[in-house]
Design brief:
Length: 298
């Protein structure tokens, strides 16, 4: 089986990090750098399970991620690796879609999302056009506050299936990811040039104004979050759950307390840094979205 989520743990003896798959501790690696140990563990997982795309999920915070000036706290966005195809796309939004980027122009209708081909038993995933969903089992693991912080609607499934899924429709608090100012290079001793694929800009549709949030794709490999939000955009006290971009987000401690329980199969997390407003670029560079760019659950 490929693309599985492996629950891992780590220790540090003062010199070297040791990392291992929690229910198969013989699948392990060690290195002076945690990041390098994690990369070697991915190789060990490939050898042991034949899974070259395995995702490691640690049952406690990775070392050092929160320890940066101006980084107020770290939360996580969680997303499942399941996949489905919409059967009633035309009924799901008022009006038509932008002819350039395919983003719907109108509001979500009251019609339930109808999906075919949700594969495997993943407890969450997204559809071709970026609708995000989670299983009933996942929702049962959440506290009432976490569940009620977001809006859910049962998905209609076609074919012979019994598992119940809910679309993540919205949230009381929805936060946009931000672009950081170059000052973080000095503050955090990092390079913005190696943060993402090849540009330092928000992708933007010239026709309808839709924006795709900026992702620091390669920073998790350097022990940093992959996304950032402005602390001024997050209410105090922080809500039990909210949406960052399009992704369901909650505290790292809460995610780690439910990780690995039935209801979390195929779900992995990405760290989101909540930063001081002084680190946020108020007018980031924007580049046009290529026509018909695929909608991702960002
Ligand atoms: Zn557009």
């Amino acid at each position: 089986m490929e693309n599985r989520v492996y629950i891992c743990s780590w220790s540090h003896d003062g010199e070297r990090y040791r990392v291992w798959v929690r229910n198969r501790p013989t699948v392990c690696a060690e290195h002076a750098s945690f990041v390098e140990a994690d990369i070697e563990l991915a190789g060990a997982i490939c050898l042991a399970f034949g899974d070259g795309e395995g995702v490691t999920e640690y049952d406690r915070p990775r070392p050092g991620t929160s320890d940066r000036p101006g980084l107020v706290t770290v939360v996580v966005s969680v997303l499942g690796n399941g996949w489905g195809t919409e059967q009633n796309l035309d009924e799901l939004h008022e009006g038509d879609r932008c002819i350039r980027c395919l983003t719907p122009r109108g509001a979500r209708t009251a019609t339930p999302l109808r999906v075919s081909g949700i594969r495997g038993g993943a407890d969450g995933g997204r559809t071709s056009f970026g609708f995000v969903y989670f299983s009933e089992g996942f929702l049962e693991l959440l506290t009432p506050e976490e569940r009620d912080g977001c809006e859910w609607r049962r998905i209609e499934r076609t074919g012979r299936t019994t598992k119940v899924y809910y679309e993540l429709l919205g949230a009381q608090v929805r936060v946009r990811p931000v672009v950081l100012l170059p000052v973080v290079e000095r503050l955090w001793n990092v390079s913005l040039a190696d943060a993402a694929a090849d540009w330092m800009a928000v992708q933007w549709c010239e026709l309808c104004g839709h924006e795709i949030p900026y992702d620091y794709t390669f920073w998790p490999q350097r022990g940093l979050p992959h996304r950032f939000v402005d602390r001024a955009a997050v209410p105090e006290p922080m809500p039990a759950s909210f949406i960052v971009g399009k992704q369901f987000s909650l505290s790292r401690a809460r995610w780690q307390s439910i990780l690995g329980r039935p209801g979390t199969r195929g779900i992995s997390s990405g760290e989101v840094g909540v930063v001081e407003s002084s680190l946020v670029d108020p007018s980031p560079k924007r580049v046009p979205i290529p026509p018909h760019a695929k909608r991702e659950a960002k």
